[in-house]
What does this fold into?
Amino acid sequence: MKNYSIALLPGDGIGVDVVREGKKVLDTVSALHGGFTLNYEEYDWSCEYYAKHGKMMPDDGLERLRNFDSIYLGAVGYPGVPDHVSLWGLLLPIRRQFEQYINLRPVKLLKGIQSPLAGKTPEDLDLIVIRENVEGEYSNIGGRMYEGTDMDMAIQNSVFTKKGVERVLRYAFDLSQAKGKKKHVTAATKSNGINHTMPFWDEYVHKINKEYPDVTSSIVHIDALAAFFVSKPETFDVVVASNLFGDILTDLGAAIVGGLGIAPSANINPEKRYPSMFEPVHGSAPDIAGKGIANPIAAIWCTSMMLEQLGEQDSAEAIMTAIEDVLQEKEILTPDLGGKSTTEEVGDYICKKLKNSL
Ligand code: ATP
Ligand code: MG
It folds into this structure.
């Protein structure tokens, strides 16, 4: 029997509530499926931990995480703790150390959810955005010059490497080839305005595409692409973008399929040399923390992505079916989806659906 080890990092605020429900779903599916077991280790690394220890995690934190199969993160953030502390103190070290260079975000309208785009159905809204997760525009290179003078200026350099660009593009073409409905990759660019890094990116899109003769590609400027996400999302299949463009596109993507309460994401190390990390797109949501009304569906969807990445396809699909059943019934939903139920009630109900289905 296979055994997977999972590091639980509930984090702050609603992260704690939603990870609890996700774990319940994982336990339910593994008990029912019978083909694998899961064991967990929980860590309290968070902004609360930071308040006590002056750091987001212990010095050997990454070392402790290294040998897990997956990391399951709730959210980190707390009013008064600047975002860069949680980002540079926990999230970025994990993403970078474990070479999680793929940020995967399904932009998929689940059955039972109404898109804010009039008339769009689950068939229309079913694409996947791959965001480059470790280089690109979010580099630490640059600085401020001549501050306090009339020449005051700031410079920030982007870094695009052959290794970094090739591997994210290959992942996109691989995914399209294996699972894409249209066998088409759309690459976001801005090579008309950004004249060093983006032409470099475009050049590699053409080059990598040659390795995949059965997959077509197009290169679309990010401004137009953002508009097309709204006006004709049904034309897309696999979309690949640099760190900054992917960041923007994925938030837009979350908005057109129903918002933060149901948006999952995965930070993947495709080689499986290190653990991948699964986390809902939303943050710690201090405004509703402790009220028991956070929607756990984003975090539960993450457990499906985790199982899929571990190779447990049937269980991953069963979780999605259970989520869609609950959404379509519209009986047990949290307030963000117009319901009156609690986080726990939604989690329990999804588990009940799973038990009935397997
Ligand atoms: P952080 O600083 O941790 O990023 P934030 O203040 O940016 O937190 P988000 O978590 O990004 O907050 O949430 C933004 C808004 O969306 C909040 O008003 C929050 O209540 C709502 N929201 C986010 N996640 C959920 C959820 N799972 N269920 C219900 N509402 C949510
Ligand atoms: Mg936020």
Q: What stands out?
A: The mean pLDDT is 96. The first helix runs from residue 14 to 33. The pocket of adenosine-5'-triphosphate (ligand 1) is lined by residues 14, 75, 77, 260-261, 282-288, 294-295, 298, 334, 336 (CB under 6 Å). The chain has eleven helices and twelve strands.
